[in-house]
Amino acid sequence: MKLDSSVSAIITGGASGLGAATARHLRSLGVKVALFDKNPETGEAMAKEIGAVFCEVDVMDEASVDAAFAKARAANGQERILVNCAGGGRGGKTISRDKQTGEIIPFKASDFEWVLGLNTVGTFRCVVKSAAGMATLEPDETGERGAIVNTGSVAAEEGQIGQVAYAAAKAAIKGMTIVIARDLSSEGIRINTILPGIMDTPMLGGLKTRAPQVYQGLAASVPFPKRLGAAEEYADLAVTMLRNGYINGETVRLDGAIRMAPR
């Protein structure tokens, strides 16, 4: 896909971290960008900084997502690009014990459902709505109508102790990639998924000052290079997936060769 001012993109979780880096990269190429995010303060500031449209949205809420797509399309036209970076987790073992009493504590099914709702269902909801819009477009000169990039995690393959919900949610994103690619092939729409490792995003980057030894330990656990991944490296891979028309149905690790230990 040619990335220039004739193309518009929607990025969920676009106000910070991986989404913000991807938005900056696409704007540097002239692509029109709409940022979907729950945080209006950071979202509006980011949109103003890079010349994008901000849409306050909760990807777990159908009406909110519909309204955001309508706003983005009114401003920038029908998108040919969707990058899904919205996500998060709630930790906990399948069952654990109270350290004082030995009482068995089960992981709440409601928390499990919440994590899947945010990561898996939220991602799929946006994929469906974006693909339906892309299908109304005329194919470009290569026969392509659009391209989608989802965000999984290395936890999809090596979930650690206490990550049962997050690992399941990200494994589902990985698992649905090839199926969606096949489903959308007749429409000329591609989809790929990135599985980031330990990334230097706001969630972990704060450890530099709060717990520098923990941060340094995380960096040392990466085989090479011995550091956390940069959000810009995620953005670079996402843009490559969008540009290269023969990358389809793939899940690609971005992790410095790390393989996560049980804990």
Automatic annotation (TrEMBL):
GO MF term set: oxidoreductase activity
Domain of life: Bacteria
InterPro entries per record: NAD(P)-bd_dom_sf, Sc_DH/Rdtase_CS, SDR_fam
A Pfam family assignment: adh_short
Matches recorded under PROSITE patterns: ADH_SHORT
Alphabetical keyword list: Oxidoreductase
Family assignment from sequence similarity: Belongs to the short-chain dehydrogenases/reductases (SDR) family.
Classification via PANTHER family: 17-BETA-HYDROXYSTEROID DEHYDROGENASE 14-RELATED, SHORT-CHAIN DEHYDROGENASE/REDUCTASE
Protein name: 3-hydroxy-2-methylbutyryl-CoA dehydrogenase
Species the sequence originates in: Phenylobacterium kunshanense
